[in-house]
Amino acid sequence: MNYYLLAGVVLATALAVAYLVASLLRKNAPQLPHVLSLILASFSVPASIKLGYLGLTTEAPELAPFTDEDRVYVLAGAIALLWISVASIIQTLRS
């Protein structure tokens, strides 16, 4: 079982439901682009965690086509993806 996919599905479902409930409590109509943004960002969170984990723990031959020197760039990409995803989730929930 792919636990990263499962985490994305659970997070996406929870955030979509939270957004819909918050919209109804504010008496605003839920916006489809906001829900889609939450879903996409939700799947990016576990993907960035997996990328960071692989960048930290995987041996160089298994990182092909990346070399051992590229590990820092893989980690930087994972941090950037996580940062942007969480910021997008927060921004969407605030609107």
Helices and strands, with pairings:
Blueprint (H helix, E strand, L loop, with lengths): L2 H23 L6 H26 L13 H24 L1
Please, could you describe this protein's structure?
The protein is mainly alpha-helical and 95 residues long. It has one domain (3-94). It has helices at 3-25, 32-57, 71-94. The longest helix is centred in the middle third of the chain and has 26 residues, at 32-57. The termini are far apart. The model has no long low-confidence stretch (mean pLDDT 88).
Q: What keywords describe this structure?
A:
95 residues; mainly alpha; 3 helices; 77% helix
Estimated radius of gyration:
16 Å
Structural class: mainly alpha
Could you describe the largest sheet, including whether it forms a barrel?
Answer: none
* Number of extended strands: 0
Share of helix, binned:
over 70%
Q: Could you give the order of the helices and strands? A: HHH
Number of helices: 3
Low-confidence stretches: none
Provide the β-strand percentage band.
under 5%
Domain unit count: 1
From the N-terminal CA to the C-terminal CA, the straight-line distance is 35 Å
Q: How would the global form be characterised?
A: elongated
Question: Taking all residues together, what is the mean pLDDT?
Answer: 88
Kindly summarize this structure in a few lines:
With 95 residues, this protein is an all-alpha fold. It has helices at residues 3-25, 32-57, 71-94. It has one domain (3-94).
